[in-house]
Automatic annotation (TrEMBL):
It holds the Pfam family Thioesterase. Transmembrane segments: none annotated. GO terms for biological process: lipid biosynthetic process. It comes from the Bacteria. Belongs to the thioesterase family. InterPro entries: AB_hydrolase_fold, TEII, Thioesterase. This is Surfactin synthase thioesterase subunit. Residues 7-229 form the Thioesterase domain.
Length: 244
């Protein structure tokens, strides 16, 4: 017996598109349907304007998602995507939508602990963006030597950093879903900043640390997916056992 089908909506990190989660579709079992959310200004939504207001973006995605949202579902976001997943969960609740099965926040400091991101509130030059990109790691070296690739990547990255830097946290009713946080042992995001996520949920909370830096999501992909599946199985409030 296996869990019933679940939709896993995945939100990308800064500068990335929905393609960041393409491999997950082949790596996860059939009962988990991976549905990466494409943000405006990239991928198949390239012609749409980039967004620099986190609340507006979350509201836009919630309105789009509410038209086809099915239970059960979960939200996953890495770095910027973790914060956006949090705001999306609140925006969906405002629309009267059911709570997710779980919210997974990866390599993302808690919404109340984003002091170090205030430096991103002002637009960065191309050189500043490149320095930031190099410091984060996870970007293939060939990208930095490809002028055409950079011309496409830097505007997206600039907008995404503004999303982070201009974000302002405010307290709301606690989310009615478990929050599972993932971190990298060599990442700059502190354990304290990750642990503060527990203040945002009225349900279960967990924190798991993986080997690697900010992009442990790539280096430890298999372990991460196994951990994610375990949490989805353990917390299957809305899942029904069906034949595989």
């Amino acid at each position: 017996m296996m869990p019933g089908r679940l939709h896993l909506y995945c939100l990308p990190y800064s500068g990335a598109s929905a393609m960041a989660y393409a491999r997950w579709r082949r790596s996860l079992p059939a009962w988990v349907e991976v549905l990466p959310l494409e943000l405006p200004g990239r991928g198949r939504r390239f012609n749409e304007p980039l967004q620099t207001d986190m609340q507006a973006l979350a509201n836009q995605l919630a309105a789009e998602l509410s038209e086809s949202l099915r239970q059960p579902y979960a939200l996953f976001g890495h770095s910027l995507g973790g914060l956006l997943a949090f705001e999306l969960a609140h925006a969906l609740r405002q629309l009267g939508m059911p709570a997710p099965q779980a919210l997974f926040a990866s390599a993302a400091p808690a919404p109340s602990r984003r002091e170090t991101h205030l430096e991103l509130a002002q637009e960065l030059s191309d050189e500043q963006l490149l320095q930031r990109l190099r410091s984060l790691g996870g970007t293939p070296a060939a990208v930095f030597d490809d002028a055409e690739m950079l011309s496409l990547t830097l505007p997206v990255l600039r907008a995404d950093f503004l999303l982070c830097g201009r974000y302002r946290y405010y307290r709301r009713a606690l989310l009615g879903c478990p929050i599972h946080v993932l971190g990298g042992k060599a990442d700059r995001v502190s354990v304290d900043a990750l642990a503060a996520w527990q203040d945002e949920t009225a349900e279960d909370f967990s924190l798991e640390m993986f080997e690697g830096d900010h992009f442990f999501i790539n280096a430890c992909e298999q372990q991460l997916l196994e951990h994610l599946l375990g949490k989805l199985r353990d917390g299957g409030r809305d899942l029904r056992a069906t034949e595989a």
